């Protein structure tokens, strides 16, 4: 589940291996690009951590973040 932390929506995803994690990141990247709303994220082997915040709104959580989070959830 997404958590609200420091004005960000944050979620950690764990996969079987790096290839599966990277495939997920590729899907997220395509979705984010279509929305023109890009996550802060990190990847360590099979784990992907995503942070969503809207920089143009003063680094707060907005509907753009919630919409992207919902779309990301559909990619799992």
From TrEMBL:
GO process terms (BP): tetrahydrobiopterin biosynthetic process
Transmembrane segments: none
GO MF assignments: 4-alpha-hydroxytetrahydrobiopterin dehydratase activity
Gene3D superfamilies reported in the protein's UniProt record: Transcriptional coactivator/pterin dehydratase (3.30.1360.20)
Enzyme Commission identifier(s): 4.2.1.96
Keywords: Lyase
A Pfam family hit: Pterin_4a
Catalytic activities: (4aS,6R)-4a-hydroxy-L-erythro-5,6,7,8-tetrahydrobiopterin = (6R)-L-erythro-6,7-dihydrobiopterin + H2O
Source organism superkingdom: Bacteria
Enzyme class per UniProt: lyase
Family classification: Belongs to the pterin-4-alpha-carbinolamine dehydratase family.
The protein's name: 4a-hydroxytetrahydrobiopterin dehydratase
The organism of origin for this protein: Roseivirga echinicomitans
Organism ancestry: Bacteria, Pseudomonadati, Bacteroidota, Cytophagia, Cytophagales
């Amino acid at each position: 589940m997404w958590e609200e932390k420091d004005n960000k929506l944050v979620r950690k995803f764990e996969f079987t291996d790096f290839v599966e994690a990277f495939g997920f990141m590729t899907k997220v990247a395509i979705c984010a690009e279509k929305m023109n709303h890009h996550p802060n994220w990190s990847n360590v082997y099979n784990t992907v951590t995503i942070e969503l915040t809207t920089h143009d709104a003063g680094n707060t959580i907005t509907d753009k973040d919630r919409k992207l989070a919902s779309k990301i959830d559909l990619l799992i």
